[in-house]
Design brief:
The protein is built from 3 helices and 3 strands. By secondary structure, the chain is of the alpha+beta class. It has one domain: Orthogonal Bundle (Arc Repressor Mutant, subunit A), CATH 1.10.10.10. Helix 1 crosses helix 2. The relative contact order is 0.22.
Length: 63
């Protein structure tokens, strides 16, 4: 899921990309947010999720 967050994206778009249900994506994002790896911001009526600096560091260390 983290690798799909290359730019701020909606849950619906992540579900489409990952072929998961929006509810499943939402559960993943909730866990990632609790771990400090994702932040979510409201833009109008849409919630957009993006990686944090911590997530970027983890991905670059494994990559």
């Amino acid at each position: 899921m983290l690798t799909e967050l290359t730019s701020p994206v909606s849950t619906t778009e992540l579900a489409r990309r990952s072929e998961m249900s929006p509810a499943g994506v939402s559960q993943h994002l909730t866990a990632l947010r609790a771990a400090g790896l994702v932040v979510t911001q409201r833009r109008g009526r849409t919630l957009l999720s993006a990686r944090t600096d911590l997530a970027e560091a983890l991905l670059s260390a494994t990559g």
